[in-house]
Each structure stands twice: as structure tokens, then as C-alpha cells.
Structures
1.
Amino acid sequence: MEMYAVQGFSDFMNRIHRKAGSFVGLGLLAIGLIACGGQTSTPSETATEKPAATAPETPVAEKPATTAPVAGAKEILMGSNSGQLVYVPDTLTIKSGESVTFKMNKAGPHNVVFEKVPGDDKALIEKLSQKKLLIKPGETITVSFAGAPKGEYDFYCTPHKAAGMKAKIIVE
């Protein structure tokens, strides 16, 4: 009699483990689907966007990251509407003295780090770069180009640089 009780209990535990394994598998599948999105892109987005990828996590810097958007500032989205790891637009032309608002859109976290500026001015690179990561959609960083020399300003997103999340601002 005891042997039957032990065997019955063993069968019972095996069924629980099989069911728990199924729930874990379904849970991982659900997390994967949520992380990948499942959104569709428009023809205009797919023509210019790079495939999504991930990169190692980056520490948050000490600079203030979120500011209220500046009236009249041009806007660059961080992450496309379809969730691609790109800046939209990837090239923006402004006049010296204007401001650019970077808006967290999708597929974050994102930041803005300048790597090439006219004259390779390290102080200007540090002044313009906003290394703090934006996480929530709608968060913004506004960068002023007041007194900035004319030329090209290349920047990237630290967590997604390896995925090709780079762009350019041209100051005229």
C-alpha cells in the first residue's frame, strides 16, 4: 500500500513539473513577443531604417537629461514609430543658434552623444552630448546650437551604436 502511495505522489509531482514547464515556456514566449513588438512599419519607414539590434547596457551619466521642449526647436525622434533603432530624421539641417529637441519615441533607452563636431572641439562635444538615458516615451532633451560653428555634427545613441543608431546635424 505504501509503495502505491509513493508512486502516485511521484506521478502527481511529475505532472506538476510538466505543466509548470509549459507555463514557463509560454511565459518566455510572451516576453519575447512583447520585446519584439509585433508592430508593422510603413513603406516610408522601411526604406530608410536599419534592422533592430541590441547592445550592452550603458551607465547613466550625471548630466541633466530631460528638459521642456523649446518653442521653435526642430525635433528628432529617438526610435522610429515601427520600433527601429534609428533617429528620425537621420540628417537634420539647422541654422546656428537654433535648438534641436530629441524626443524619446520607441525602442529605448536612448541618449545623444556627439562624436564629431567642426574642429574636433572636445569641449563642444562634451557640452552638446546628453549621456543620460531616456526611457519613457515623450521624454525630451533639448540641445542648443547657440554660437555653434557651421559644419557637421555626428552623434549616436550609446546603447545602440553597434546597431547603427547614428545621425547627423548640419549647422548652416
2.
Amino acid sequence: MCIGIPGDTIEVRNKQVYVNGAAMKNPENMITSNDTMRKGMAEPGGNLFPRGNNGWNRDNYGPIRIPKKGDVINLDAQSYDAWAVIIQREGHAIRLGENGTFLIDEKQVKSYTIERDYLWMMGDNRDNSLDSRYWGFAPVDNVVGNALFIYWSMFNPPYAPGEGDPDEIQKFNIRWGRILNGVH
């Protein structure tokens, strides 16, 4: 579900989402566990977007501003990890040059102008949703429609500690009560 539009600032504090500083109403059927990763504790695996934010985790994330077309981003060696993916997704080759300079399409630059509008997407399963916290901003022009209903829903319970092989497919439980329900 889209929770943020171009120019909005998103933050997650103890699993509560804030948009532009205001707490967002949680989805009716939101799924969370009782345990919360503390603020400043890095996400296990370090696979959050953008790279380089080691103190963020899925439960305490941001704040992060959603870029909009025309935004000018100042670039330096410290911001490379945060902006390289977006610049590449906009169709440019990017690399760090000598002395921490940015090279975009082999031209040295100190700033970059965002070419597209972006959205921020989050699922209703906050603890187990690979959403914008993991893959980043979604280009507005990639959105092709609105969700009307839940097509498929399942829960993959974890093994109890010390049981089974975590690399194998675990037992899947179909959540029949959610299938074909309308999306709010």
C-alpha cells in the first residue's frame, strides 16, 4: 500500500509509521509481533534501503524524505551509498572517482537532479514485509493500478529455536479468511 507521496517524510518509531511527523492510522488487519528492535540497533543482515544507515531497523526507521522530480541532491563520498541506487535506477552509470568525487555517466558532478517522482510502499505485515524499507522508493510511473482484493495470503511460521533446517521450506499455512477480502 502506498503510504507516502513525493516530498513526504516517512519515519517508523517502535513500529508506528509517521508521515510528515503525524502518526498514520494502522491498517485494520496489521500484523506485528510483540518484540521490537531498539532504536539504533542495526537490522540483521544489513539489507535495508538505503545502504549505509547502520542504525536503522524495520521497527525504527528513518526519517527519510521521498524524492520528487526536480529535487537537487548534493553528492559527496558519504552520500554515495544512499543515492547510487536511485541514480542507477534512473538509467545512469555512477561510480566514485578519485578523492571521493562522483562520476555520473563518466562526468564529474557535485549534485544530481532527480528525474522522476517516487512513492513509499509498506505492507500490513510490518515484521515480515519486504517493502520500501528494503527495496526503496517506487517510481510513480511504475504504478499501473489499484489493488482491489487480497489474491493470496499465507503464513510461514518459523521453526522453534533449535528445530529443523532454516534453509528448507517450512510448513505453509493458508490464511483462508483473508483471501478475496477487499483492500482498504
3.
Amino acid sequence: MDTQSPALRNQPRQQRSIETVARIVETAESVFAEVGFDRATVSEVAERAEVSTGSMYRFFPDKNALARAVADRYEAVITEVFNSVSEVLVDTSQLPEVIKLLIDGAVALQEVHPGYYALATAADPSDTTAPTYPVRRAQIDWFIAVFAKLELKASIEEVTAFAEICLDTTRMLIHRLPTDPEARQRQLVEIQLMMEAYVTTRVETFTQSQDS
């Protein structure tokens, strides 16, 4: 976790404090994944992280701050995934490869960060105060940057709607993947095909608009 996270009331300086904060955030993510944000309590997180409530409140003023810290940790990792994809994306012919990379990355992160996905799935996408909103905003901005890189003619509103469909559809479907490995892989292939068809069709529309 970034020790300069705005979710923190006080920034940890000593190694022991840094490790305590990391353990609290990891525990909070586990609790959010198991019971959801609404049912989770600060006291439960503190107990399972084996820290006092006083130590908890030293760094996190409330449960919302814990959720924001979970989101911050996820954002740091997903940003690396998006940046790695940006490096290989040169033109629209690479979209199928890019879609697969993004979905594979999202699936892997869902397994490692189930608490974030629980928060994001429960959040109102239009709620700018939601702990997960900064992550969503950063992902939408990535799509806007990609469209600019590929010189596709589309308004900010069009790209935003496009990004929201890609992000929300993928997240919701991944969240509901079966646990059986074979069934999970079959559905994952279908998700990739579905998103490839949608993205390819929409990008062709934007390309045609650019040529007209």
C-alpha cells in the first residue's frame, strides 16, 4: 500500500507502523469481501488484524477511510496493468489482444483483491464520494487517453459511456464467475469474445465517423 494514501489520518514513518497499516488494510479487504461494506465494523477489522481500536483510529478515522485505503491499494496495482497495456497498443488492430490482457488482468486482481471488487460492485457508479470512485475515474481517463493516442474521433461523453460499459460489464461478469475451474474458463472465454465484439464494433463506428 502507498504509505502516502489520503485515506490515512497519520502517515506511518517507522517500519513497524508501516507493517501495521498494511496488515490493517489487508484485513479490512478480507472483511469487506466476506461480509460487505455495510456489515463490516471497525472493531471487527481491529480484532482480526490484532491491533487495538486506538491503533486503528490513529491511522484510519472511520470505516470509509479503510475502504478508501483498500481502493488505493487496488488502484496502484491496476494502474500497472493499464500502463503495460498502453505500451503494446499502437493501433486498433491490436484491440483483441488488448481486451484479453485487460480481462486476464482483472480476473487475476479479482482473486487477489476480492474486497475491492465487493466495494466496487456495491457502489453507485455516479457517487463521486464512493471510496472506489477515484479508481473508476482513473480508468475512464485511461480510455480517454487511449482514444487520443489512436486518434479516434469521439467526444469525451462518448468515450466515457464506452469506458463505463466496458468496466462495469467486465467487473459484474467476473464477479459472478463460477468457482469450478472448467466452467470458469468457459465463461471467461465467452466474456472475452463478447467484449471483443462490442469494442471492435464501437471502435469501427468511431473510425467511420473520423473518415466521414
